[in-house]
Each structure stands twice: as structure tokens, then as C-alpha cells.
Amino acid sequence: DGAGETASDSPFLKSLYSLSGEESTQEAFTAHQSFRPPASMHQSEHQTFRPTKTVETLVDELIQQALARSTLEEAFIEAEPATDTDILVIPYHDIPVRPQDRFKDAIDNSDAAFIPKLRRKPNAMEPLNHQELMSTPWLSPYRTEILQAPLNPAQPFNQPGTWRCASLDSQPAVVISHAADLQALANKLRDENVSEIALGMENHSERSFQGFLCALELTTRHQDYVIDALALRSELSALAPLFTDPSVIKVLHHARDAVLWLQRDAGLFLVNMLDTEIVARDLGWADPSLAGCVARAARVQIPPLESQHSIDWRRRPLTDGVVRAARLRTHYLLDVYDVVRHLTRDDSPYPFRIPIRKSAQLAVKAYQKSRLGGQDALEALRRDLCQQHGIVLTSKAQSRVFEALVFWRDRVARIRDESVQYVLDDKSLMILTRDCPTRFVALERSFRHTPHKGIPVLLNELRRPLFWEIACALDPHHQRMPMEAALETEMSSHVEGGSIVDRGEIGFGWFQ
Known about the structure:
By secondary structure, the chain is an alpha/beta fold.
């Protein structure tokens, strides 16, 4: 404390150490200061001379005493709770019209279970049971059809090299953005009795809580199709008869997410699917990525899919460059399929039924909404983020702030249909947990050395509710409505010339 106390007078050090027997407190502090036990202490007594409080407990007591000398009311000066409506009405400054605002189906970001968007069931082995659909939404309604699909295609496969996909520049893709054109495509593929198609999807998740499909790529042996999944979101069910036809192999690469996106947005399921990534990994290919598989099978070099992360798939119209990037996901995938079928012949050590069965285990998974885990999951997340970002939390109060901010960003993301990383990315989450700012100047200081180089726009709009969450976490027993008249009085004393002045109070950044 530096207030003239000696070590033996300090209430914190007195409470930190305890002695057994009749040793005096002064002897304990003598031992503490010299880092060795007093000469009069026997070995058995020295073994009982030990700290009885953790560092976290001591830090918490220091904070509580500091708060008693000051007041936690200061933490609430700029804090204010927010209703769901308050959070929702904040304008979206960066984009005037969001695609999800035009969706015909309402977006449900609540904790309620996701109900599959299935109104009819083509190619059914078991009839659609609406009661089961509502009571057990975690089970795929097509699980019987998926798991009992034939393990080997009826049609003979092409020998590698006998059929080679034309180059991207030889033939333009067909872009479909009208419902009539989509239905015509479905009818055309049905009439042609296609035996295999390649599928790919472009999903946007940065500015949506659950994400949504923006484009769907479909490639046959003769043509690439790029389907505008934003314009045709409610009409994609026209592809259900094709996608659930067990006589048509659906070839995808890294299908784990794609099968869930189709269920989430269109109620589409894939029966008889092959994930070429499974084959590439099982066979030990050096590069199991799509680019690696295409280079091995088609002898064509394509850029890795990671290079497409900068593309905003929400923007319309689809430019030639964006359409070309979309085609790369499926244009050469049937070449890969031909090589895979040759390597997985029935007489090979790795027959085709193995990857087909593994792919079915992916296809049978049902989409479920993401939820926050329990206390153990939060503790694991806190440890992982501390290690990842090199931040050390020294107080239980900071752990409470971390938990409060995790729940707060999840709530804001659900209400505004944003990703939790857009609301508050992990790096910023840990910085705010470490600093616990409850004033604007402290918040500005915390974000000065982040990649944002300043407070993000949305977080700046929500800073008062953010301060409220932090202040309530610092003092969990101080739940109350915000002061009105007193709040205005306190705020006016800290404002000069329209800006808040840092007076150095404890509420300006608790742990800085």
C-alpha cells in the first residue's frame, strides 16, 4: 500500500500466512522477509509454515478493498443496459441492404431446435413422418435412403484419360438466377439420365450468425452451371429429385459442411454421395486439397480455395471473375472421380464401397444450430484463447468478465444476425477481458494496438451495453437499473468541450 506500513503491519500479508504452534506473527514475517525460517523454528514447524491463499484470491481481495475506498458506482457512469430492440435498431452502416433481409423464410437464431425444411420427400424408401420431423430434428429424414444406397454405381466408370474435361475458357458456364431456368435444368438432367454430377457451394458466414448459401455449382460431363442461391433460395427444392436419386453419384470435395448448408437453407439431402477428400486422405495423397487432387488427376494447376476468401459472394450481379472462381470448385472434379474409381476397383485393397460408406456417414448428419457450451466448455475456451493470444488473466473477476462477454457477443450476434467474430473477435474479447474497460477512454486505449486500429463501428455503437456487462461482472451483486438523474450529473462532471476527460478513476480501465 505504501502508506507507511511495515510488512508485519500489512493486513494482506498477515492474512496470507498462518503458523501452527505458538509462533508469533512477527516471526512469520521475519521468515517471509528473509526467505528462510526463524532459527527458533523446528523442522516440523517449518513444514507447516505455508501460504493459505492463492494469488487469485489475494488479487480479488485487493480489488475489493480498492473498490471500497473508491466506489463501483463509477463503473456504471457510462454503462447502460440494452434491450433486444435497442441492439436491433442500430443501422448496418457498411451495407444498405443485406441479402437475408430479402429472404422469404424467416431466420431463426434462437436456441430452439432446427426443424428440417422438408415438405415432400422424393425417392423415399420410407414416407415422410412430420411428427418425427418435429420431435427428433437431430435425425436425418433421409437416413434410411442414405445408408441403404448402393455401394457401387450401376454404370461402368471411365478409364482415366478416356474422358478429359475441357478447359475453362473453351465453354462459358450457364448462370441460373430464375426459377423457371432452375426447373428446366432439373428436368434436363432427369431426361438425360446423368449418372454423375459434381457439386460445390459458396457459403457466407462473416455477416450472418448461421451463414447462408450464396452460390451453388453443378457440373456434368458437358457443362458447368452456377446457380444463384440468393435469388433462388426458396426454389432450390426443385433439385431434390436429382439430389436424392440413388442412381446418380454426387461428387463433392470436403463435403462435411456442404451437406449441412444444403439442409439449413433449402431442405436438400444428398443420397449416394462421394467425398473425394476422404479418398485422397485414405490413399495417402501428398496434397488432399482440391487443388492437389485436380493437379494429380487432371494435370491442371488451379489456385487453392483459400485464395477465394477475399471474394464477397453476396454481391450481385455475379461478375465473370466471380463465376470463373466458382467453376473451379467443380469443373475438374469429375476427372478426379474417374481416377478415384480406377483406384478403388472391387479387386483393389481399397474398394469403392469404403469411401462411399464413409461419405454416407457425412451425408446422414443432420444440421443443428450452434450453441454455447456449459461451464467446462467456457473454461476450455478461456484457456485456449489465453494461450493463443498470450494473455494472462490474474483474477476471478476477469474470468467473470470473460464469461459475460462471451454470452453478450452471442446474444448480439443472434439478434442482429451477425457472426460472433464480427461482433467481437477473439483477440478483442481477450483484450477486453484483460483490461475490463468501463469508460470510453479506456475502451479506446484497449483497441489502440489491435488490428482494428480503433474501436470497431458496431462495438462503438454498443459501448454502453458493453460497459454494463463488464461492470455487472466486476460486481455481480450490483444488478440495478441505470441511474438517470445521478448518471447525468456524473457524466457532466467528466465532459469538457463535448469529450470525456480521463480523470484517472478506477473505472477507466480496471486492470491496465
